[in-house]
Structure formats: structure tokens, C-alpha cells
């Protein structure tokens, strides 16, 4: 019998009954849907039953309770099991499970936060533990005693992001974090790489500094014991390595290779499975009591307005540096603001925030996927996390960013060192596809300030904005364009140069905006007037101003950007005004760039004032 | 004294002299450039000296020799050290090193294959070992005895991609692969997470099944011994965990935290560093002999033309399935074609290739970054690797794809299960940003076949094309559009419906092309003629046909795509014809989609024939 200090005294017979119920509901719902992963649910049903009905403390009627223990289903394809557990716990009517995977129900194929009991979307494997780190850090920040459980599959143990999380969780001594690996040994197309070599799993997790417990994942008493040990282990996270069988409880599918991702067919097949599972139910349904969480502590202090910037007109400041300065002010104004770094804090200037607010700053080392995943976890609990690295290295975490967009997260991303204007370090360090990848995701605001004042206000607006925001910053110092009290909006733009005689509108942001301003002056000397627009918000885009500018300049526009040609400013502007008959010409980077001096490269790749002057003259002739 | 069976008998004094030379050249070149990472070169100089001048067999005058031992500098910021080693070995004049990081020299800030001795671009950390797996597999395929050495940093050991590689290399028993971790304990902004805890490193690598040797990275005798052991170890890869000091040999920088990424200033600072390093040189330069590789074996059989497809007009075939069928034919026609999978081979249909050509098929499990990295390594040695997974999961490897583009690799990517038309699995499994991310990269051909015949020919063309190719495929079965002998080209398109009275051109590909054809028929019933173009090549794009179609249809176009609105077909078409005064309207997915039935979802997100009909009528009214 298990000890009961940290777990409820739920009888094992009840837990086994509940595990059978979860299997039955998983089979029923997937059979009704005609698709899904019932066998992946069956391997983990005992683990989930023990967690939900004896180990975890949570209020099923209030999944957002701040002191609820958190559960992340990293193996998102076992969604029906998750749904069954919440339904069985009383969160909603189990009959709703039969609408699984339909357009009419938010019980989707993989879990998303459209459901109030899902903190982060899963379904792309190997992301749950990273989010779990964010959840565990949040408990520490809030001095809450909630614990975080992450259920992973064995197949996804191959994803490197899990080992990023393993190393960081050990380093952060997250003893409020407990991972479970459902080692059912069957992948989608083949047995998993380690199959049932439980000692190999133990060796890996132990070597990464975890309390690693090998357990029979179908033995509820053993599981209770292991969770008890996990709760008592201090100074390190615990992982339960649970040996299981895929399709457990269904004789013709159990441990069989050909049953991945297949619903049992209605009729004989499903009936046989359900009959076998039902044989494990108690004659009459047992009473189940969920252990409730502690009442919430007092709410954190409200946010104050952020202090305005204090730049001088003669200053020259890199936008990445202005971002760092504002982040400190945001930290002072809003206790929910936190920041994460991947060992570039002295390049993105988040080090200033880290020095001022060490408790709210997390050095997560060179592991960008984990940084984003942890940020998403923190955001799911009401924090406002800023994650910053070179824009080029955000590509490393694009799947995490994609899933963050599906989660409709409140994460704020900053990508620095964009474009060829970084110079000598060469193409591997140049962010040249960041606008394409960020703007593609629905619901992400994409901002690109050119001077320090604009950076300040956009960073402040980002914190207040509900939803994901991307801020693009540059490496070189740039002049001040705006007064400290200039007004900016997400979705706005600024017309910096205009006259009644303008022949064409140049749209730019970042270093190319300054090239456009130089071109404006050079063209003015030659008697040619152009309009210049600072497009500091790419998504949403200020269509009205763009269109008005185009109308005033012969419906002729030229975009100039330190970004590859596809998916950047040029395409965003074109998409906004093309259908109104405006002709938009693009200047952008069209080949893999070379190392060199920033000004040399801007010129080599056709983005310098000289090239803009030439292009304008050609277009208006 | 080291054994000399596998290494040259180069005296230790000579190796120490050469290590000093490499340090001196690294300092000189970075000082002249005014930027770079000399201290990161100094920590690894002894390792590189031992490798290049005693362990490795290669022809410095012929870096492409097929039997050369391969060296990958995963810590790409130590590029000056790599360049110094090749110069010192005789590949080029050491004076050229003083043009480091200039636009005039290919000795860039981080290594790229613009240099003939660089197989794969590095500089985004944690990618070298993945490429190394490809190099080691290539040796096995070609029955060559060359060995692959990958020099990594300790900071990058945090990147999960390294642990993906570690697991796979063990599984594949790659004893011809040797990794070296330069554990200099200093990161960019902080000490590394494990600093000099060499036992922690040993525990992790041993647990992952490697022969893990802890060694003093500045002791040339110890290094020789360790490389000797590595060469004698069978059945598993070896890692040398080399304890080093950053800035080794320069007293004022050695093991100091503030010297990351800083060149020594010309004058007193650099002079002092160079004086200290020069003191370690032998009085007169020793004679160095590089060990040459075995002569090349005979070339593989030449490729034959691929067999044509044999589809019936009445067939209904998913494009992913047609891809798999063609891959088998390609395997028969061309011995250089290989394929890699990440446990979805029964969904992408690469399992057919795997069954037919088990030696040329690599199951690399659920680790997409490693799959792409290994593919890049194979491609660098002349193989034609096809890597296939769900398009959504290619986002996982976007940094690897970005670096592959910088390498100008000959990799072929297939992304399946695109768009909302996958149905019930929901948004986490839907590739909806793949066109944006692939088309952003210069030099990538982006193809999107709609039927099995087109898929066949585009897959065959992809194999012949020099450069990276992306093929987008769908989950649902689709009808046959073309005769088996139809001609396709990369950069082409097909006008499927046209008449003299067409009011508008609809451009589509994939499932939406069939919706467009349905809309065409429905509109025809209502007396409205439209043109329909199959845009099977997004990059390069068939501007001439698009423009001609637009000209014939009132300069009015409508794009319809199962992809997010930014960076997809609509933007590509608009960018191609907008400046010619064509108005392009877009229909695409504009929000995070929901689970549901494929047809329901196409309708819900505005991509069905019904919506196209409505839109066309609105646009032409």
C-alpha cells in the first residue's frame, strides 16, 4: 500500500476502476470520431488516473485556480485521455466526449487552450516539459505550493528540446516539477529507439541530474509510491519512467505495432475492446473526491504606467539597447513582467533587467526552444514574459513559436541583430527571414522600430497588448527620429517626409529607413520630392496611411528592407494596397549575404541611399 | 608518449609549436579584422593542431578528396582557427588570413562552403554533430575508411539538437565518428551551465552510450592518446571531453569572463598577446607532413532516367503517396538518392523506399533537426538526400533549413499534411506556414503539386536540380489532372481552364485547385467564365504565364491557398505581377484553425468552391 501523506487515500480498487473508465471513454470518443489515438491513451490511463484522482490537488470546477496543480499532456495525441480525466473529475459532462474532433466541440484532436483546463497547446511532440519549466518557475515566483506534472511519450524523448529542459530544470533545482515518461515502446512507424530498455532511460535522466524512478506504469500502487517519493524529493526534479504497454487492456491491440493512431471500428471491433475494458470496472461506481488546492493568495500589485524615455535629439542608440533600457522601466512599472535569456543578454541588453530584477530574470543558456517553451508556460499563468535573442536564432524555435500562436500566448519576443547590417559576423548571424516567419502566424503583432524613442514606446505597448508580439531590433546605433512624447500605436506608421509634389512613397523601417531619408535629401537636391513612411508596425499594418500616401504619389511605392525579399515589408505593403491599384516595388536582400562591413553590405545588397536614389529615378521616369 | 599506430609520429614539440602558430594566426587575423573570437580559438588550438597535423588523413591541396577525413567546426565562431589550420597545412597562403571578415575574402566571420574545405556552414550553434552523422553515414555507404571529427563548444552542448545526434549516433553504431567538446567553461554572457564539471559531461555522454574520454585539452600527448583510443573503439562513437581554458596562452585573457568575442586591439594589447604566444614557437619551423588519404575508389554507377508514372485518369491518389511511389523509382534510377525519416514514414510513404533500399534509408526517429542536419552532411558528399515529414514539423528544424540554405546544400525536403484539409487532427498538425518559411530562403525551389502525375515529375525534377528543393504535399486523395507524359518544369505553371471570355484568373495549387475547378464549373453554369492556373511552382514563379493570364482577364487575379495569408501563394503571385498593374486578391487561412472534417474546414476557413464562386462574382461585379 502506498503512503498517503502527499496523495489522497483513494483505494487502489477505485483508481483501477477509474483507469478503466478513462480507457473506455477514450475508446468510445475516438470510435465515435472515427479517428484518434486510443492505444496511446490506454498506455497512460493508470498514470493519469493516479494523478487526477489521488495525487493532484485542483479544483475541477475552476481549472484556472492559481494554486491548482498543473498537468501538461506533452504527448498531445492522447488528448481523449486528458478530456476523459477532466470530465470524470467533474469539469464537464462526459457525454460531450462523443463530440471529440468535431467542428462543434473544442475537444480537438490535440489539446489547445480553447479549453479552459489546457494551459498550453500540445501536439507537436517534445514541447510539454519546456512549458512545465515555465509553470514550475511561476509557482516559485508566486510562492505557490502547486506542483507541475508533465506526461511525455517515449517517442518524443528523441526531441532535443526535452534534454534542453532536463538540463535547465536540474540547474534551476525545480523540485516542484515532475515528469512522467509513458514508455510504451511503440512509435508511429516502428518500435521506439530504446523500446523497453528502462535502464537506458534511467541512465540518461540520472546523468542529467534528475531523481529518476523506474516504475510499472500499470501498477497504481507503485505509481502512488513513486509520486510520493517525487513530492518528498528536494533540490531536484523527478521523472517517473513508466514501463507501459500501448493499447493496455485491449488484448488484440496491446503491445501490437500496427495500432498507432487508429480508432477502433464501430461494431464488433470497438465492442470487443469495450467489453474487455468494462470487465475491469467495479460493480458500482465508487465515490471520488478530488483534493482541492489552497485558497489563492492576494493578487500582485497593479501595473503603473511606464516611465517615458529621456533621449536627446543628438543621441545615437541601437534599438536593441533601447529595448533593454525600456525593459528595466517595464520591470519597475509591472511586477508581472519577467525576462528570459539564452546567453546573449549582453547583446540584447536584457542583462540590465537581470541585474535589477534577478528574481524575475531567467538565464536559460543556449537553448532557444526551451526558452520560448518556458516563456509560454509563464505566460499561461498571467506573467508577461519577454524572450530575447538574435532574430536568426529564433528560427531555432519556430515550432515552439508556431505552437505558441496556437496557444494564443501572451509572450513577447525580441529578435536582435537583423539583416546584413550586422556586418562581419556573416550570414549565420543575420536575421533575414524573421518577418516572414513571424507575420505568417495569425495573431502575432510584428513591430520594427527604427529609433530609440519608437523602440521604447513599442516595447511598452507590447507589454500591454494581449497576445504575442514580435519586436525586431538592429545591431548598429541609429539616430533619434522622434521626440520623447511622440505617440505610437500597434498598427500605426509615421509619415516622416512629405510635400505636395511627392512623386513616389518610400516605405522602410530599421536601418533602411535612414537610407531612405538620405535618399530623400539627395533627391531633393536634384529637384525630386519623395514621401518617406516609417512602417514601424508590419502586422497590423496601417493600410489607411499607406493608401493615402500612395494616392498622393501617383499610386507608386517603393519598399526597402534589410530582410529577404519574400515575406517581409515589401510583401506586407503590397498585400495591403495592391488590390487598390497601387504599384509597389521592392528592394530587399535576394541572395545569401557575405561577411563585410555593415555599410559595405548595405550597398552590396542594394539597400543603400545610392541604390534608392537610382531606383526612384528609374521608377518615376 | 602516445602510441603511433593510428596517428602520425609527429613529435609533441612540433605539435605544440603548431598549436602556438594557430593561436598566433588567429590573434593576428582577428586583430586585423577588428572583430572575431580569438579566445575561443585559443582554447581549441591544441586539439586542432593534434587533429590536423597528426591524427587526420587528408589532402590539403584537394579538400574535396572523397577519402579525406572530415572536420566540422561546430563552434563556428572559432573560424579563424579553422582557417589557420588549413593555411598552415598548405591549402592556401597564410597571408590571406589577414583579409578575414572582409567582403573581398571568403574567410568569413563563420565558415561557409564558399570555401572548398568547408563541407557545411556553421555559426548557429549545435548543428555540427548532426552534419557529422551525415558525413559518417556517407563513409559507411561508400565503404570509405575516412573518419569524421566534429569540434563542439561547451556552451552549445545545451542545444537539444546535440542530444538528438548523440542518441542517433549511438543507435547507428557510428564508430567512424569522433566528437570533441572544447570545455572552456566561459559562455558569451556568463560561465557555462556545467563550467568545468568534467564528470557531469562524462556522465551525460556515457549515459547516451558513447565512449566518453575526459582529457586535458592542452596536453597534446593526452589528446593523441585519446584520438588513438577513439580510432580503436568499435561499435560506438567516441567523444573527447577536453578541459580547456578560453584564451589559453595569453595571460591577461586566459580563463577570464570578459573576453568573449573580442579581438585584441592593435598595438600594445595585441603585441603583448602575440609576444606571449610566440615564446612557445620552436626556434626554427619544424617540417610537417600531412598524412594523405587512400586513393579514391571507383565512381558509383551513373543515374538513369526515372521511369514514368502509370496512373489511370480515374485514379484518386494523395500527393504524399505519389511522392513515395516516385521516390522508389528514383532509388532505382540513381544510386545517389538516399532518404531519411523521423518516424512518419508510413504517413509520408518513404517507407516504400526504405523497404526497397534499406541501406540507403535512415530511420532517425522523432528528431527533425537531426534529420535535416544529417541530410545536409550527406548532401555535402554528393548524395541526394530526401527528407520527409509533416510540413508542420519542418518548422522544428527551421534554423537547420536556414543554415542549409547558407550551405547551398543539395537537400530535398518534402512536407506533407499541409493545411486545414488534414481535418480532425487540428492545428498542431497542419502545415500552414511552410511556404512562407521555405520561400523566404534564397535559392530554395518551392514546389506544390496537385495531382499524382505532377508530383511524380516534380519529385524527379527535384532530384536532378542542383540546390535545395521543397515539395509540399497534401493528406487527402485528389483526382488525376494530367496525362502521364505531361511536361513540367521547375518554374512552370499550367493553365487548366481558359476561354476568350474569361473575366478573372484564379491561381491555386493543392486541394484549393480542385475547389477552383469546381468553382469554374459552377460559374460556367451561371454564364461566368474564369481562367484557372495550377501554380505548381511557387519559387521560381512563372511570371510570364501569370502576367499573360492577368492581361487576358482584365488584370484581375484571385489566389486561393490552404496556407496562412502571409508569405504564401497569394503574396508570391502579387509580388510577381503587382508592379505591372495587376490586382491580386487573396483567399487564405487567416486565423488559427480548429479540428473538424476536411471539407467542413475548407468551407469554414473560406477556401471552398462556394466561397470562390461568391468572391469571383463580387470581384467582377
Q: Would you kindly provide a written description of the structure presented here, covering whatever features stand out?
A:
The structure is a homodimer of 621-residue chains. Chain A is α/β, with parallel strands linked by helices. Chain A starts with 11 loop residues before the first helix and ends with a helix. In chain A, strands 8-7-9-10-12-11-17 form a 7-stranded mixed β-sheet, sandwiched between helices. A 5-stranded parallel β-sheet of chain A has the order 1-2-3-5-4, sandwiched between helices. The first copy, chain A, has a 5-stranded mixed β-sheet with strand order 14-16-15-18-19, sandwiched between helices. Helix content of chain A is 38%, strand content 15%. Chain A has 3 domains: 6-278, 3-Layer(aba) Sandwich (Rossmann fold); 316-479, Thiamin diphosphate (ThDP)-binding fold, Pyr/PP domains (Rossmann fold, 3-Layer(aba) Sandwich); 494-620, Rossmann fold (3-Layer(aba) Sandwich), CATH 3.40.50.920. The first copy, chain A, is elongated. The first copy, chain A, has 21 helices and 19 strands. In chain A, β4 (211-216), α7 (220-232) and β5 form a beta-alpha-beta unit. The model of chain A has no long low-confidence stretch (mean pLDDT 97). The interface between A and B is large, with 115 and 115 residues.
Just name the CATH architecture of the largest domain in chain A. 3-Layer(aba) Sandwich
Low-confidence stretches of chain A: none
Question: Helix share of residues of chain A?
Answer: 25-40%
* SSE-based structural type of chain A: alpha/beta
Can you summarize the main beta sheet of chain A?
7 strands, mixed
The protein's oligomeric status is homodimer
CATH class of the largest domain in chain A: Alpha Beta
- Strand segment tally of chain A: 19
Largest interface, by Cβ-Cβ below 8 angstroms: which chains and how many residues each? Answer: A-B, 115 and 115 residues
| Count of structural domains of chain A | 3
**Within the largest sheet of chain A, what's the order of strands?**
8-7-9-10-12-11-17
H/I helix tally of chain A = 21
**Any idea of the CATH topology of the largest domain in chain A?**
Rossmann fold
Mean pLDDT of chain A: 97
The share of residues in extended strands of chain A comes to 5-15%
The separation of the N and C termini of chain A measures 88 Å
| Morphology call of chain A | elongated
Which superfamily, in CATH terms, is the homologous superfamily of the largest domain in chain A? Answer: Thiamin diphosphate (ThDP)-binding fold, Pyr/PP domains
Radius of gyration of chain A: 27 Å
Amino acid at each position: 500500500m502506498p503512503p498517503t501523506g502527499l496523495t489522497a487515500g483513494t483505494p487502489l480498487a477505485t483508481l483501477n476502476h477509474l483507469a478503466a473508465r478513462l480507457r473506455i471513454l477514450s475508446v468510445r470518443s475516438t470510435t465515435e470520431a472515427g479517428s484518434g489515438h486510443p492505444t496511446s491513451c490506454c498506455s497512460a490511463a493508470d498514470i493519469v488516473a493516479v494523478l487526477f484522482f489521488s495525487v493532484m490537488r485542483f479544483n475541477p470546477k475552476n481549472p484556472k485556480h492559481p494554486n491548482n496543480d498543473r498537468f501538461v499532456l506533452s504527448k498531445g495525441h492522447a488528448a481523449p485521455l486528458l478530456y476523459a480525466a477532466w470530465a470524470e473529475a467533474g469539469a464537464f459532462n462526459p457525454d460531450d466526449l462523443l463530440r471529440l474532433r468535431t467542428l462543434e466541440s473544442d475537444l480537438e484532436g490535440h489539446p489547445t487552450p480553447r479549453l479552459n483546463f489546457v494551459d498550453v497547446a500540445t501536439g507537436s511532440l517534445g514541447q510539454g516539459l519546456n512549458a512545465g519549466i515555465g509553470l514550475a518557475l511561476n509557482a516559485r515566483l508566486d510562492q505557490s505550493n502547486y506542483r507541475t506534472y508533465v506526461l511525455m511519450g517515449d517517442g518524443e524523448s528523441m526531441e532535443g528540446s526535452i534534454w534542453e529542459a532536463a538540463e535547465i530544470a536540474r540547474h534551476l533545482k525545480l523540485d516542484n516539477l515532475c515528469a512522467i515518461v509513458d514508455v510504451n515502446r511503440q512509435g508511429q512507424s516502428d518500435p521506439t529507439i530504446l523500446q523497453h530498455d528502462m535502464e537506458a532511460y534511467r541512465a540518461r535522466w540520472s546523468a542529467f541530474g534528475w531523481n529518476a524512478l523506474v516504475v510499472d506504469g500499470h501498477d497504481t500502487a507503485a505509481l502512488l509510491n513513486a509520486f510520493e517519493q517525487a513530492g518528498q524529493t528536494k533540490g531536484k526534479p523527478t521523472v517517473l519512467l513508466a514501463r507501459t504497454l500501448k493499447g493496455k487492456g485491449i488484448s488484440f491491440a496491446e503491445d501490437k505495432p500496427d495500432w498507432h493512431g487508429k480508432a477502433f471500428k464501430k461494431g464488433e471491433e470497438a465492442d470487443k475492446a469495450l467489453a474487455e475494458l468494462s470487465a475491469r470496472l467495479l460493480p458500482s461506481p465508487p465515490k471520488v473526491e478530488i483534493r482541492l488546492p489552497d485558497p489563492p493568495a492576494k493578487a500582485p500589485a497593479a501595473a503603473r504606467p511606464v516611465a517615458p524615455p529621456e533621449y536627446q535629439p543628438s543621441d545615437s542608440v541601437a534599438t536593441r539597447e533601447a529595448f533593454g533600457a525600456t525593459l528595466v522601466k517595464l520591470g519597475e512599472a509591472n511586477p508581472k513582467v519577467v525576462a528570459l535569456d539564452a546567453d546573449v543578454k549582453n547583446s540584447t541588453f536584457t542583462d540590465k533587467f537581470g541585474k535589477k530584477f534577478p528574481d524575475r530574470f531567467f538565464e536559460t543558456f543556449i537553448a532557444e526552444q526551451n526558452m520560448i517553451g518556458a516563456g509560454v508556460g509563464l505566460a499561461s499563468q498571467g506573467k508577461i514574459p519577454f524572450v530575447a535573442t538574435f532574430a536568426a536564432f529564433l528560427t531555432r524555435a519556430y515550432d515552439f513559436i508556431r505552437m505558441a500562436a496556437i496557444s494564443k500566448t501572451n509572450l513577447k519576443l525580441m529578435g536582435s541583430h537583423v539583416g546584413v547590417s550586422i556586418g562581419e559576423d556573416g550570414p549565420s548571424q543575420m536575421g533575414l527571414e524573421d518577418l516572414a516567419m513571424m507575420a505568417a502566424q495569425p495573431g502575432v503583432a510584428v513591430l520594427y522600430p527604427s529609433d530609440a524613442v519608437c523602440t521604447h514606446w513599442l516595447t511598452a505597448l507590447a507589454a500591454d497588448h494581449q497576445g504575442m508580439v514580435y519586436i525586431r531590433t538592429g545591431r548598429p546605433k541609429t539616430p533619434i527620429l522622434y521626440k520623447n512624447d511622440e505617440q505610437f500605436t500597434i498598427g500605426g506608421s509615421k509619415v516622416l517626409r512629405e510635400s505636395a509634389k511627392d512623386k513616389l512613397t518610400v516605405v522602410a523601417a530599421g536601418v533602411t529607413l535612414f537610407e531612405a531619408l538620405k535618399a530623400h535629401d539627395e533627391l531633393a537636391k536634384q529637384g525630386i520630392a519623395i514621401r518617406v513612411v516609417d512602417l514601424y508596425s508590419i502586422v497590423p499594418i496601417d493600410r489607411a496611411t499607406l493608401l493615402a500616401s500612395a494616392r498622393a504619389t501617383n499610386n507608386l511605392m517603393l519598399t526597402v528592407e534589410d530582410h529577404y525579399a519574400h515575406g517581409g515589408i515589401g510583401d506586407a505593403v503590397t498585400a495591403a494596397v495592391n488590390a487598390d491599384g497601387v504599384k509597389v516595388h521592392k528592394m530587399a536582400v535576394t541572395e545569401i549575404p557575405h561577411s563585410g562591413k555593415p555599410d559595405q553590405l548595405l550597398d552590396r545588397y542594394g539597400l543603400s541611399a545610392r541604390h534608392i536614389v537610382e531606383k526612384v529615378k528609374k521608377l518615376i521616369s
